[in-house]
Amino acid sequence: MEPAEIARFTEVNRHAWDTIALVRGEGLHSGELFAQGEANLPANELPISDWRGLDVLHLQCASGEDTLSLALAGARVTGVDIAPENIRHARRKAKLAGLDATFVAADVYQLPPELLAGGFDVVFLSCGALGWLPDIKRWAGIVTSSLKMGGRLLVDEIHPLFICLEYDGSRYVAVEDYFRRDRPQWNAAGPPGLAGTGPDDIMPGTVEFRWPLGDIITALAWAGMRIELLDEYPNDRPELPAEQQERLRKLPGGFVLLATKDRDRT
Ligand SMILES: C[S@@+](CC[C@H](N)C(=O)[O-])C[C@H]1O[C@@H](n2cnc3c(N)ncnc32)[C@H](O)[C@@H]1O
């Protein structure tokens, strides 16, 4: 996809996420939480368990909860998000918690050159990130440009198949096209699942994309990454009725991906 078209989509989402951040405010995970040394993300349970001294680039970091969790675990963190309002929240939380963290307001597709200079040990992405990306191959190239040789990408994400399913009261049915790829899905009322975040009339629309797992892996392999781990896991939702939980356990709800940069792109 051409850069101008990518920017047309990402600008729509910047406006939406900025509005969401304004409405949400600091949300549940305030600066005080981190100041008390409590993390939002159990960093030591991830496939990279020792974060001490690692230079980490967290892409699409929202208001920095997961980024600051990695900082608490000893990483030197840089969080990037397209929504300046998110970045403002993230900086305030870091300050309140006395944590050393750099937060940058930028589009993943237009990162400042210093973040693309191969200086990072780890690029990290957490839940709800990949569906906002209009071009997965270009994204994979950005990941490898940011990493040192031997550096790792860690993604802990919602499974793309799960996003296509809905519970109809007795079973999960496919309601979306798993293979939609870069065909944009416009949501006039903002991201599904965030309805209720604020008054309907102020929620701007968003545009989303659906990347099959195979496309994500292939894009990374072509960009110079060696896949070390792909762990698909079911959702654990104890609050749901037993029958629905039983069905959930048979479906992929999320995945963890670990990959290492082992060559420069050809
Ligand atoms: C569901 S949130 C991800 C939350 C994340 N798991 C965390 O650390 O809390 C999606 C985020 O992606 C950001 N985003 C969407 N498109 C982006 C882009 N092109 N470049 C940078 N950030 C983007 C949004 O602003 C939003 O904060």
Task: Compile the SSE list and pairings.
Layout: H1 3-24, H2 31-35, E1 55-59, H3 65-72, E2 76-81, H4 84-97, E3 101-105, E4 120-126, H5 136-146, E5 147-158, H6 160-163, E6 165-167, E7 172-174, E8 181-187, E9 206-210, H7 213-223, E10 225-233, H8 242-248, E11 254-261
Parallel strand pairs: 1-2, 1-4, 2-3, 4-5
Antiparallel strand pairs: 5-11, 6-7, 8-9, 10-11
The structure holds S-adenosylmethionine (SAM).
Q: How would you sum up this structure in a few lines?
A:
The mean pLDDT is 91. With 266 residues, the protein is an alpha/beta fold. The protein has eight helices and eleven strands.
Please name the defining characteristics of this protein.
single chain, 266 residues, alpha/beta, Rossmann fold, 7-stranded mixed beta sheet, two-stranded antiparallel sheet, 8 helices, 11 strands, 31% helix, binds S-adenosylmethionine
Describe this structure in words.
The chain has 266 residues and is α/β, with parallel strands linked by helices. The protein has one domain (3-261): Vaccinia Virus protein VP39 (Rossmann fold, 3-Layer(aba) Sandwich). 31% of the residues lie in helices and 26% in strands. The protein is built from eight helices and eleven strands. The strands form three sheets. A seven-stranded mixed beta sheet has the order 3-2-1-4-5-11-10, sandwiched between helices. Strands 6-7 form a two-stranded antiparallel ribbon. It has a two-stranded antiparallel ribbon with strand order 8-9. β4, α5 (136-146) and β5 (147-158) form a beta-alpha-beta unit. α1 crosses α4 and α5 crosses α7. The radius of gyration is 18 Å and the shape is globular. The two termini are 19 Å apart. The mean pLDDT is 91. S-adenosylmethionine is lined by residues 10, 13, 17, 60-62, 65-66, 80-83, 86, 107-109, 126-129, 132.
